[in-house]
């Protein structure tokens, strides 16, 4: 279970190109079958006057939470661009496990079997065909900068990249994206921890997850807002509130792992197996929203 999935042979597969985007962009990760949080995100986009044509999901529309079919339906109806995540890949292939990359025998591995079975039961054949057709990457240009959205990393759909991941490794991932698509920045998901880095002239952004809190002891979930300015692109990590009680109740009605339902309310993950030591040390420490400027390209 949870075997690493190399993207090397898939590098030449179709990459959706959204072209130049002419206003603020919302990027978000992992709705994870959390219907209430996804509805709240779409409402926040309306308030910010960001249309679905300028919204990008980094994959895993369904996973831990109680309403995978309904969450997928509203996401598709909205017309948001979605990258294939490892859960979409696994469901489309009718695989036996979620492909999250959890080490065999860990608590995360054991818990995933229950929520993944729920997703398999709820997602029908038409939805699986939609998942199979999703792009593994999405290109777009904003403020003259070329970006690539992926699920885990350019090298592998289920690679975890955290704030503590060595800078050289992140730089290498951005270089791979540049080699394949000319991207200057990468937008990724999968790890569930929001963070942003400017590395030289390059950008790495993880918008966190819409469907699950960031293990920071609050029930808030996260997304990113990117908007072009005269000096570059402003990148904001924003937290939002939603009816987490209703989302947790939906999980309990379906008999899903109690730890994840409790996580929606407490903001604390039920297992820290996947986290490096630096991220484990921040458990329960409330995150503050961030704003960072990615300076305009020196070539401009």
Task: Identify the notable features of this structure and list them briefly.
six-stranded mixed β-sheet; 300 residues; alpha/beta; Purple Acid Phosphatase, chain A, domain 2; 31% helix; disordered N terminus; globular
Could you characterize what this model shows?
Helix 3 crosses helix 5 (125-132). The N and C termini lie far apart (47 Å). The protein has 300 residues and is an alpha/beta fold. It has 9 helices and 12 strands. The strands form 2 sheets. The protein has a 6-stranded mixed sheet, covered by helices on one side. The protein has a 6-stranded mixed sheet with strand order 4-3-2-10-11-12. Helices cover 31% and strands 21% of the residues. The chain has one domain: Purple Acid Phosphatase, chain A, domain 2 (4-Layer Sandwich), CATH 3.60.21.10. The longest helix is centred in the middle third of the chain and has 16 residues, at 107-122.
**Helix vs. strand class:** alpha/beta
Q: Which architecture per CATH?
A: 4-Layer Sandwich
Share of β-strand residues: 15-25%
Q: Main sheet: which strands, in order across?
A: 1-5-6-7-9-8
Oligomerization status of the protein chains: single chain
- What is the helix fraction of residues, given as a range? 25-40%
Order of helices and strands: EEHEHEHHHEEHEEEEEHHHE
Classified in CATH, the superfamily is: Metallo-dependent phosphatases
Sheet with the most strands, sense and barrel status:
6 strands, mixed
Low-confidence stretches: 1-12
Q: What is the CATH T-level topology?
A: Purple Acid Phosphatase, chain A, domain 2
Number of strands: 12
By CATH reckoning, the class would read Alpha Beta
How many helices does DSSP assign?
Answer: 9
Terminal-residue CA separation = 47 Å
What is the average per-residue confidence, as pLDDT, rounded to a whole number? Answer: 92
Anisotropy-based shape:
globular
The Rg value, from CA coordinates, equals: 18 Å
Q: How many structural units, i.e. domains? A: 1
């Amino acid at each position: 279970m949870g075997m690493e999935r190399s993207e090397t042979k898939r590098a030449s597969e179709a990459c959706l190109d959204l072209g130049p985007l002419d206003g603020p962009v919302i990027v978000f990760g992992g709705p994870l079958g959390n219907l209430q949080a996804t509805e709240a995100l779409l409402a926040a986009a309306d308030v910010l006057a960001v249309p679905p044509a300028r919204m990008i999901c980094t994959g895993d529309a369904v996973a831990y939470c109680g309403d995978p079919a309904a969450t997928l339906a509203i996401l598709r109806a909205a017309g948001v661009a979605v990258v294939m995540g490892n859960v979409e890949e696994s469901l489309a292939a009718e695989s036996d496990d979620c492909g999250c990359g959890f080490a065999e025998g860990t608590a995360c591995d054991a818990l995933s079997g229950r929520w993944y079975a729920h997703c398999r039961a709820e997602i029908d054949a038409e939805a699986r065909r939609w998942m199979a057709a999703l792009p593994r990457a999405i290109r777009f240009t904003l403020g003259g900068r070329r970006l690539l959205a992926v699920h885990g990393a350019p090298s592998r759909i289920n690679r975890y990249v955290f704030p503590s991941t060595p800078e050289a490794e992140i730089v290498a991932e951005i270089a791979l994206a540049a080699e394949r698509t000319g991207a200057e920045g990468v937008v990724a998901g999968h790890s569930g921890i929001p963070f942003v880095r400017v590395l030289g002239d390059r950008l790495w952004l993880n918008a966190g997850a819409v469907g699950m809190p960031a293990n920071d002891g609050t029930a808030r979930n996260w997304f990113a807002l990117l908007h072009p300015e005269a000096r570059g692109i402003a990148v904001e990590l924003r937290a939002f509130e939603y009816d987490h009680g209703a989302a947790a109740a939906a999980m309990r009605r379906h008999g899903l792992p109690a730890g994840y339902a409790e996580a929606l309310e407490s903001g604390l993950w039920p297992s820290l197996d996947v986290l490096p030591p630096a991220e484990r040390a921040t458990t329960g420490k409330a995150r503050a929203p961030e704003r960072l400027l990615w300076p305009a390209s020196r070539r401009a």
